[in-house]
Amino acid sequence: MINKVVANADAAIADIFDGAILMLGGFGLCGIPENCIAALLQKGVKNLTCISNNAGVDDFGIGLMLKQKQVKKMISSYVGENAEFERQLLSGELEVELLPQGTLAERIRAGGAGIPAFFTPAGVGTEVAQGKETREFDGKLYLMERWLRADFSIVKAWKGDTAGNLIYKGTARNFNPMMATAGKITIAEVEELVPAGQLDPNQIHTPGIYVKRIFQGSDYEKRIEQRTVRN
């Protein structure tokens, strides 16, 4: 069985180039590839198009890449926690494509499934529909959306094996699994790395066939965007 392990995040992202299209997994700050983001900051790669559910916060996640002016364009669905994102958007420094969250998820899934376009009712009659084809089905208007694919998909899993099979935990399953299928090269960082054959095949969420490189990460902060507690 092919061993896909690399030493660390620096080795995993070494060939990411200026102008690349990246998918970065996670939902809010849950399940984001913290180690790879840190390596991208250190590498200083620029003019990136980043496809992610959100843009992190000002001092964590993709927000740090925005602060360092590494991101040329964001394709996202929720960006309300990031003041630097707002500043760059309003000043014209950052290209932004905002999408309904379900549309974003389906465009990524379509990219992984090899489906170049699909029709959805979400966004019809709004700014989301500008410049896009609409078509009527059974008396209702639908909007055509194109697939999303990336040069590199960077995902975070709870556990993986040396062959690249991945298991996610909880909310980290929202975007990571579909992004893992939609990149030319998929890079996975995991909290626990085990030898091939030790994972229960019935529990695997991403088969190793999709994963090119895998490494065991460290020092995860796992921040919470908005901590709300009772008095």
UniProtKB/TrEMBL annotation:
Record has Ribosomal protein as a keyword: no
UniProtKB keywords: Transferase
Domain of life (superkingdom): Bacteria
Protein transport in keyword set: no
A Pfam short name: CoA_trans
Molecular function (Gene Ontology), one example: CoA-transferase activity
Similarity annotation: Belongs to the 3-oxoacid CoA-transferase subunit A family.
Protein name per Swiss-Prot or TrEMBL: CoA transferase subunit A
Species this protein is from: Xanthocytophaga agilis
Source taxonomy: Bacteria, Pseudomonadati, Bacteroidota, Cytophagia, Cytophagales
